[in-house]
């Protein structure tokens, strides 16, 4: 008996197709079953409103999840940073593969780096997190930049620079890599300066909770360190009671002594979009071995950030 093809639900954007295509190949290799891509349009793809105005989290994710719930597809691939922090009981986060480059990247005219941007440079980003940190960095380095809210897919955003409408745009390095446009990057923004969104650069592979055999097969693609890191980052986000459009950056990484992994570090930042105030803190702990431990690391840092006034800085977000 030949088993039917596995149906992978995907958004139609170039980025979604690229990441779904890569996962489809890996799953095909793993299971020996063919994988068919099923295209699904989400509200986040069709709306021209600014992401912060569409409101709530998960605009890119909801339609894929509905298709999973209706059994129209067997599994779905999401950008982990687009996933709401609450996991629905009927779905399993079957795998979090090894994370790609988590950094934000600058695509600027004339090959400019961020430090080389001229006085008053117009920098496009729709992300309050990026605005807050870019403006804070500029302030502390005596630069003046103007952040300009934009949205759209990778090609649209890069287009603003090529058409001369903006001096630069900021995008996730991982997204540019996945669609084969990393050659456009003129500067990679260090995570020491600009913390990425929780989960940035990581993928989430989700299937129905009742489909235990598929979940077990997909789990082969899981990377425990990436999963622990993104779990801590998302736990921080949830404990701050912030969503994916909030000005929150977070990154967990491993601290090693030579080859020996010693601890996990979690860094977090919250700020006002004008960059006038930031709360930026870091904590370290033993490398989490369970989801509970990873979540505790995130909650611990959130409590410290809230004690330093983080909540007051998130109030202005437009929802
Ligand atoms: N918010 C949209 C989004 N969701 C995931 C990525 C790509 C990178 C990733 O997987 O983190 C992007 C584009 C961007 O932020 O530039």
UniProtKB/TrEMBL annotation:
GO molecular function (one): hydroxymethylbilane synthase activity
Family listed: Belongs to the HMBS family.
Oligomeric and partner information: Monomer.
Domain Porphobilinogen deaminase N-terminal: 6-214
UniProt KW Transferase keyword: yes
Cofactor requirements of the protein: dipyrromethane
EC number: 2.5.1.61
Function comment: Tetrapolymerization of the monopyrrole PBG into the hydroxymethylbilane pre-uroporphyrinogen in several discrete steps.
Source taxonomy: Bacteria, Bacillati, Actinomycetota, Actinomycetes, Kitasatosporales
Residues in coiled coil: none
Top-level taxonomic group: Bacteria
PROSITE patterns for this protein: PORPHOBILINOGEN_DEAM (PS00533)
Keyword Transferase attached: yes
HAMAP family membership: Porphobil_deam (MF_00260)
Record Pfam families: Porphobil_deam, Porphobil_deamC
Name assigned to this protein: Porphobilinogen deaminase
């Amino acid at each position: 008996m030949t088993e039917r093809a596995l149906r992978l639900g995907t958004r139609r954007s170039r980025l979604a197709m690229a990441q779904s295509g890569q996962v489809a190949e890996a799953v095909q290799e793993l299971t020996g079953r063919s994988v068919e891509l099923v295209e699904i349009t989400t509200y986040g793809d069709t709306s021209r409103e600014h992401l912060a105005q569409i409101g709530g989290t998960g605009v890119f994710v909801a339609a894929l999840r509905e298709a999973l719930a209706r059994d129209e597809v067997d599994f779905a691939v999401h950008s982990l940073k687009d996933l709401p922090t609450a996991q629905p009981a009927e779905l399993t986060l079957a795998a979090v593969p090894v994370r790609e480059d988590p950094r934000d990247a600058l695509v600027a005219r004339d090959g400019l780096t961020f430090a080389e941007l001229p006085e008053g440079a117009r920098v496009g980003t729709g992300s309050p997190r990026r605005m807050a940190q870019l403006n804070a960095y500029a302030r502390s380095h005596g630069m003046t930049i103007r952040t300009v809210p934009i949205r759209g897919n990778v090609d649209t955003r890069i287009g603003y620079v090529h058409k001369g409408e903006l001096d630069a745009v900021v995008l996730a390095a991982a997204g540019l890599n996945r669609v084969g446009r990393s050659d456009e990057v003129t500067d990679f923004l260090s995570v020491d300066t600009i913390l990425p969104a929780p989960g940035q650069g990581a993928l989430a592979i989700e299937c129905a909770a009742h489909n235990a055999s598929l979940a077990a097969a997909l789990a082969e693609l899981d990377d425990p360190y990436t999963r622990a890191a993104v779990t801590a980052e998302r736990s921080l986000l949830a404990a701050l009671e912030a969503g994916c459009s909030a000005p929150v950056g977070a990154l967990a990484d491993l601290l090693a002594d030579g080859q020996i992994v010693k601890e996990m570090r979690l860094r977090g930042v919250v700020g006002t979009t004008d960059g006038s105030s930031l709360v930026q803190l870091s904590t370290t702990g033993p490398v989490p071995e369970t989801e509970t431990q990873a979540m505790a690391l995130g909650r611990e840092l959130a409590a410290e950030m809230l004690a330093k006034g983080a909540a007051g800085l998130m109030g202005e977000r437009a929802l």
